[in-house]
Amino acid sequence: MPKTIMIVDDSASLRQVVCIALRGAGYEVLEARDGQDALGKLTGQKVHLIVSDVNMPHLDGIGLVKAVKALPAYRFTPVVMLTTESQAEKKAQAQAAGAKAWVLKPFHPTQLLTVVQKLVLP
């Protein structure tokens, strides 16, 4: 049974690139346009990993990580930040909130898949 990964980004084109890479590697993909949309789609189904942007409207990536970690069903779901942000302060905030990895945009799909394969829940 394929593992499910949620991609959260306000850029439709970026979501598309990530979806193509993940689906090509055999993953099921859920898409959300921002943190608020993502929380609305986390309805108890198994999600093995979340890949999220940091800067988004309505609820940013760090806020999303905090909210996800507060949900019992998703408390242990790993979150990877995929972002243009390179500030150490933002990185530290994301780690403190519970993010497991930080991938800078622009990224190479194989780079993202390597991180995903290491962190995806069994």
From TrEMBL:
Give the 4-aspartylphosphate positions (modified residues). Answer: 53
Residues annotated as coiled-coil are none
Give the species. Comamonas aquatica DA1877
Q: Which residues form the Response regulatory domain?
A: 4-120
Q: Which UniProt keywords apply?
A: Phosphoprotein
**Entries under InterPro entries matching the protein:** Bact_response_regulator, CheY-like_superfamily, Sig_transdc_resp-reg_receiver
Lineage, uppermost ranks: Bacteria, Pseudomonadati, Pseudomonadota, Betaproteobacteria, Burkholderiales
Q: What is this protein called?
A: Chemotaxis protein CheY
SMART domains of this UniProt entry? REC
Q: Name one GO biological process term.
A: phosphorelay signal transduction system
Pfam hit, one? Response_reg
